[in-house]
Specification:
With about 120 residues, the protein is of the alpha+beta class. It has a single domain, classed as Jelly Rolls (Sandwich), CATH 2.60.120. Strands 1, 2, 3, 4, 5 and 6 form a six-stranded antiparallel beta sheet that branches. The protein is globular.
Length: about 120
C-alpha cells in the first residue's frame, strides 16, 4: 500500500457492502480499485468465478497492459473497503514516475504466480 500512499496520499477509502458491482465485463475502464480490506470476486460474462482479489492488491488495472475494455465483472464479497483511483490521474502519475507501473506490475506478477501455484496444486 505504500505505493498508493506515495501517489494519492493517505485516504481512508470507501466501504462497499456485499454484492456491489464495481464494473462489468466489456465496459471501458475509468477507475482502478485498490483493495484495502475485504474481497472482490471477478466473474466471466457467463457468471463463472475466475478468482478473488483481497487486501493489498488492485482490481481493474488492465489498461496498464493495453486493454480498452474490462475482461471480467467485479463484485464485492462481504463488506469491502476500496480506494477508488481515477484512471486519468493514475496514468499521469505513472507518466511522471514510471517506476510506479513497475511496482504495480510486480504485485500483479506475484498474484499470477500464486494463482498458478494454486491451480497446479489442485490438478496434482
Amino acid at each position: 500500500m505504500e505505493i498508493l500512499h506515495k501517489v494519492f496520499g493517505r485516504q481512508a477509502g470507501t466501504v462497499y457492502e456485499d454484492g456491489v458491482v464495481l464494473f462489468r465485463e466489456g465496459e471501458k475502464p475509468i477507475h482502478i480499485y485498490s483493495v484495502l480490506s475485504g474481497q472482490v470476486d471477478l466473474f466471466t460474462r457467463k457468471g463463472n468465478k475466475v478468482f478473488s482479489v483481497t487486501a493489498g492488491s488492485f482490481v481493474g488495472i488492465s489498461f496498464l497492459f493495453g486493454s480498452h475494455h474490462r475482461e471480467f465483472t467485479a463484485i464485492t464479497k462481504g463488506q469491502t473497503r476500496l480506494l477508488d483511483l481515477d484512471k486519468k490521474l493514475m496514468t499521469e502519475r505513472i507518466y511522471h514516475d514510471p517506476s510506479l507501473a513497475y511496482r504495480i506490475m510486480s504485485i500483479r506478477y506475484r498474484e499470477i504466480v500464486e494463482r498458478l501455484t494454486q491451480m497446479t496444486d489442485q490438478i496434482s
